[in-house]
Amino acid sequence: METKKTPGAAPAKTIGPVANLEHHLHPEWWKRIFNSLYLKTDGDVVEDALITAAEIDMFGELLGIREGDTLLDLACGQGRHLIELARRGKYQLFGLDRSRYLIQRARSNAKKGGLVIQFKEGDVRKLPYATDSFDFVTILGNSFGYFESPDDDVRILSEVFRVLKPEGKLLMDVADGNYLKDRFVPRSWEWMDKKHFVCRERSLAKDGRRLISREVITHT
Fold first, then answer.
1. pLDDT digit string, tens, across residues 202-215
2. Domains plus CATH for the chain?
């Protein structure tokens, strides 16, 4: 099988069928997955301008954000929500993500649009912002709960409430865990484009807290 390295992606390698997906899950899997391939495998959602606009319509109404307000988007990815928000008004916008590749994409996309957004690479468990800095903090796209230990989730929330102003608001967009647990599909596949398709395997972690997904991308 011929493999090619995609910019921003880890070297291509895979293994055959496995009996236990959790056994092969790296504790810090999130450090490697969010690259150019992520924008392809999840591109039907995260690169869809209409979906992003509809989400900002809903989130903006829920938050009641006004011009001049400060907003921090954690795990902001390539900045799609902040960029759409910046097009709509004069806000003070900040984005943080662990992925250097996605932050570079976010900065490039904002620059192309002539938009002023402060993007930074960093760890959501230790925010590089002063106390009482933001009117709003958002964690969107099911981006909460990636870490193996629940203690890390507590650290994130502690940091969020530290950087929020006293009357600030947190908006989290997360999937219903019980719904996913009862209805996930163990195997599926789809075309990414005319030359690539992705196969997915899914299983619950032993403790039932996480849904593990394996993706195998094939070039035809």
1. 999 888 888 888 88
2. 45-172 (3.40.50.150), 177-220 (no CATH)
